[in-house]
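fold-stage: in
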Amino acid sequence: MIQKDRNFLIELAKKYYLEGLSQQEIARFYNISRPSVSNILKQCKEEKIVEIRIQESESSLVSALAERLKKDYSLYSVVVVPTEDDRRATLSSLGRAAARLVESKLKDRQKIGISWGSTLYQLVDSLSVQSVVDVEVIQLAGSLGMTNPSYDGYELTRRLSQKLNGTCRLMQAPVIVKNLKLKKLLLQEPLILETMNRMKVIDLALVGISSDLPEYSSMVRAGFLSEDEAQNLLSRGAIGHVCALHYDKSGSILDISENARVVGIDDNTLKEIPEVIGVACGTEKADAILAALKGGLVDSIVTDEDAALRMLSQS
């Protein structure tokens, strides 16, 4: 690739993108080859002299749903994306929308917490590399040992810190342990204790929201709960979980052994974070999302049209 100084790159990019000259016309103007022009335009994109954005149209319905949710639950930010026929397409759209929201809230020297899940994977994957300074990313709960490690909190924390050119604090422990004695021993480990302490200064948190229905529970998929144990949780009032903390239909964290044995952020620390962004979609998660909104477990939400309609039909 021909390397040119920045002023020349800007000048050539203006001729192509603003003046509408073809690559062949530009090649003749500068007495260079057309492939050289193509390579220079590519260099302009790589050096962010040129940034191309596609402005996706928003239907009046999703805009209205977002405004209604924001007003009804006094939320900071609400983004609703159209529900696609293909769930993977909805997840991808959700991730892009969540990434744009996060980008709008980034600041130098922030402390950012993140949990786990496929929606957060899409968010981190869609996030562009940022030029913020001295950002620290903190894993909010221990690892699940998921079959797809890309979705686990450990890997998401590491990848997000790379995108933000920052550092990370990892939780090198399972998300739930068998007894409180083991949890107390783990919390005596310097690295784990240090990560736990950093949770108290988090400025912005990114969390997934899971249903406690056995067929949809992330804890069941990861093997930390059996289907029978998940059913037992439902019988005790559980409806969903955030950062492995189970809560009821009013969004109140349950006083149960399963929550006490979580190696990660506690509900009081979670609620002290200035802004918690929840990212989740699908009608199967609507009840869990709605309860999280009612309980103030999240301050902002990125979701899809079907989930939003289900939530508002019940409020």
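fold-stage: in (second)
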Amino acid sequence: MNQNPLQKTVRTVALLIWLVIPVTQIHAQTQAAMNAEARADFKKADAELNKTYEAILVKLPDAQSKELLKQSQRAWLAFRDAEAALVADQAHGGTMAPTLRYATMTELTQQRIKQLKSHLEE
């Protein structure tokens, strides 16, 4: 199965998380704490995404451009959430699923921020 670069990145992130979690558990961090940390990281990235999105929306010259950005963002959010659910499913409902989900959402959100910031620079 051919995967696009984004799918390969997501799979790599999931693998790295699987490898890093045992190391963090050695430091007496509970899975619940790791889930909370992953969620907090996502919240920070999501706040930056919203700030960047709003900055671009204000900069766009007309209603049509703004509507196209809104459509693009809605489609991207659906993709991000579906991809994160797919990665989290690798834990088969285990306690690590939220960490995988939030880490994937964070990684994809950071990539989207870079994409949007490139629009700001244009």
